Amino acid sequence: xxxxxxxxxxxxxxxxxxxxxxxxxxxxxxDVKRAHRSGDVAQVFAIFMPPLEREAFNDSEYLEHCFRVxxxxxxxxxxxxxxxxxxxxxxxxxNAFLSFEDGRPIDGKLEHLEQYYQKGIRLITLTWNGxxxxxxxxxxxxxxxxxxxxxxxxxxxxxxxxxxIIVDVSHLSDGGFSDVATLSTKPFVxxxxxxxxxxxxxxNLTDDMIRALAEAGGVAGLNFCPTFLNEDIECExxxxxxxxxxxxxxxxxxxxxxxxxxxxxxxxxxxxxxxxVETVSRLFEQFHHDGLSDDVIExxxxxxxxxxxxxxx
Length: 313
Known about the structure:
Blueprint (H helix, E strand, L loop, with lengths): L2 E6 L1 H7 L15 H7 L1 E9 L10 H18 L4 E3 L10 E8 L8 H9 L2 E5 L16 H4 L5 H13 L2 E3 L5 H10 L5 E2 L16 H9 L3 E4 L14 E2 L1 H15 L4 E3 L9 E2 L8 H9 L4 H19 L1
């Protein structure tokens, strides 16, 4: 079955391994060659911004690498991958979208939004695990979790709506989520987040958040990471059955239209039943086992994400 995946970290892997192409990386969870063969019709490749204090490189060096590798892969393998910048997908190829995971490259300047839009950015995960120009991240501290978007973050959200850049609330504080739900005039997404009712990690969505996301026409991308699947967030098990349970909870609370995929491939670890792109079909088999209809599975696999791409881009 074809599918759309709203989040992977393969470009970060290419930087760590000094690669100049992401077409064929046998030790990766996902590469273009296997994604294309596995039914992945659209893949959001995140440019994850590593914490500056942990790395011996600067943002400009890292960004230049990610854009260069992404563009080089497309240029070298036109039969398998195409750069996507709208909701219209090209049949027979992997339609590749670019995102920022952590909006810090925007650096508090609206003109940077437009510059990166021209370079292909079509989704921005507003924050990662630290404060930035948009606002504040999710946190186990209730006071920090309640903090909303900064004034620039609100201005940037409006400009993202105008440009056609998808607003992503994964990693964002609950207060920031509330501001996005109130201010966004376009559907927004939680590209790789699960349900807090089933796994109490603060990264996951509460039922009220799921309802607000659904009412806005957005989707939550099911994250395959054990930390966001289990009642015990220290458990390292990630199974198709656990992912399916989160899908069913999303359907129960927000309706079938709000569920999508956001694997987080090449950004997660643990005992993963679905740990490589060629094994995603196991999840659809689990959905069938759990009684989901073919129509519902197609919506989760690609139709809901396709609708958001069409509505925003």
